[in-house]
Amino acid sequence: MQCDYFDAGVCRSCTRMGEPYDAQLADKDRRVREIVGDRPALAWSAPFGSPESHFRAKAKMVVGGTPNAPTLGILDADGHGVDLRACGLLGPATTASMPVLARFITDTGLRPYDVPARTGELKNIHVLESAGGELMVRFVLRSEGQVGRLRRSLPALFDALPGLRVVSVNLLPRHVALPEGEEEILLTEETTLPMTIGDVTLHPMPGAFVQTNSVVASGLYRQAAEWIDECDPRSVLDLYCGVGGFALHAARTGRAVHGVEVSTEAVASARRSAAEMGLDARFEVGDATAWAASLPTPPDLVVVNPPRRGIRARLASWLEDSGVGAVVYSSCNPVTLAADLDRMPSLRPVRARLFDMFPQSDHAEVLVLLRRDAH
Ligand SMILES: C[S@@+](CC[C@H](N)C(=O)[O-])C[C@H]1O[C@@H](n2cnc3c(N)ncnc32)[C@H](O)[C@@H]1O
Predict the structure, then answer these.
(1) 31, 86, 269, 358: most buried by Cβ count inside 10 Å?
(2) Domain locations in the chain?
(3) CA of 339 to the centre of ligand 1 (A)
(4) Nearest CA to ligand 1 atom 16
(5) What is the pTM of this model?
(6) Is the keyword Methyltransferase assigned to this protein (predicted)?
(7) CATH architecture classification, 4-52+212-372
């Protein structure tokens, strides 16, 4: 893939830009296997590839410039906006929304936040896109002051973006380089963006985590479901379940599944999907490790899909000692994955596969099936 921003040195986020995709994928697969290391019983499947461009379901654009000439992209080293609205990674509906959103900023007179001067209101715009091209748009603002103005201008935005379904404001009052703050104000009656991924329809609300690449996430959830079916557990616990992608796939054959997740929004989203699909999947807000440790009897199989830090020592030793028969571990960081595998010697990695969620970069998603030694 070729990128003008990369060639001009304006954005270097995609560290593998310009390299043929097949070579990238083969190299990533080799590096991931090396990091995970020698595991005697482990069989690797061929990597699951991605479209090399326009694969991102979510875009987090930093807003800079002025109301008349806003930039949507990143900030340079001095804190000034760099426009990346034609980034080739963005999904097609997100790309089409960029000029409309820029125009909306101009028409409403929303002042982009100026980092060096600490003035202005609009910090970031997040866009989430479903496979059908529907959109959720979140305006990250410094304060509530402009919410009324935004609300009044919404009909024009809906006219200009027919696929628009959910709009919210997220408040980030502090002067920090974060994508979002804690308070969310919904501006639409619709609260979720339905996203069909794999064999389920997820219902993310603003703020809930969704996998970056819907094509690859579909492959990931289906692969996990296939391995879970092979193990044929009576009970499944999905830790770090988010909006429920793994849990809902595991439950679709009538199996009892329990999901645990720290985000209230994600749990509400997962419950909505389970109710809509009539599945026996229950979801609770809680800390993954504390939840597991409080269980009177261990489930037959546990799915873990933690943030980059991995599951760490406490949860790994609970899995090791609990008698859980199998673990499906989906990791976005092979280094912490390898460390966690070392902490669970009785649970032997037997299958693994790279899912290329993040083409053009060195980031990797790896799915591993671990089974308890029989003796
Ligand atoms: C990589 S995402 C995975 C989400 C989900 N499995 C999916 O496929 O979309 C990690 C999730 O872990 C959640 N999380 C972070 N720390 C947690 C904790 N201590 N206990 C439970 N969930 C946590 C995050 O809110 C996020 O939804």
Answers:
(1) 269
(2) 4-52+212-372, 58-189
(3) 19
(4) 262
(5) 0.97
(6) yes
(7) 3-Layer(aba) Sandwich (3.40)
